[in-house]
Automatic annotation (TrEMBL):
It is found in: Membrane. Its main location: membrane. This is Ig-like domain-containing protein. Residues 21-127, 165-239 form the Ig-like domain. Keywords: Immunoglobulin domain, Membrane, Receptor, Signal, Transmembrane, Transmembrane helix. GO terms for cellular component: membrane. The keyword Transmembrane helix applies. It comes from the Eukaryota.
Amino acid sequence: SVRMLLLQVLIVISTWSYGYSQITLIQTPLSVTRAVTKTARMACKITGVTFNSAFIHWYRQRPGAAPERILYIESGSANMDAGFDSKRFEAEKIVSTSTCNLKVHQLTREDAATYYCDLLTVKLSATSGVLIKVFGSGTKIIVTGKLCGNYSNLLPHSDEQAGKVSYMCLIEDFYPDVIKVTWEDDNKNAEKNGVHEEIWPSDDNNSSYSMSSWLTVDKNSTKNYRCKYQHETNENGFATIESPGIYYIIKTSSIYI
């Protein structure tokens, strides 16, 4: 007899844990800034599934609009959705690295958007099946001629308040405004609690941005802390502070495309 399977649809961002396995989609880079007519490239690394047979989709989401599927690929050539030109949108699966790459050729202003990879797979049990749809975190394409980075500055801790002290990491004059900041201690353990951040335009024309991220810890902590940031101009920028308040300045060069 044929066993009927109940399929439950789950839409998940970035990771999905199922039993003892975890499906993870990691997109790189955070953003890609290119001039008109150039090519933008991005990658999606997938773990937790049989990559060879996985169906991978790529979506484009323009500001204020619903996501549009560009294509999907299992093996061989990608299957394009209506309205998308296979000469401009190119996807390939690299089995050796479990990575699916997307290239957007001959960029136009209309290509400025956030691009998401997506995995559709089925997990089966003895009595049912689960249809899992997992999205990556996204890569933003900015179509322009400017890409710049400047200073990362980790400031000494503030005065004690209620048994706590705060450290601030100031990152100035970067573009585009897609940036990721994390804090870690001496042992490279991520600090998740007591972290806050704010980003703002550096000028009236929004031609560059600045950001502050601050970490609040117990005043008796003897750890040293590192503020790390990821940005197109410097994927491994960092500033380190050693108690009670020595700080370093890291400068990145400006790049124009």
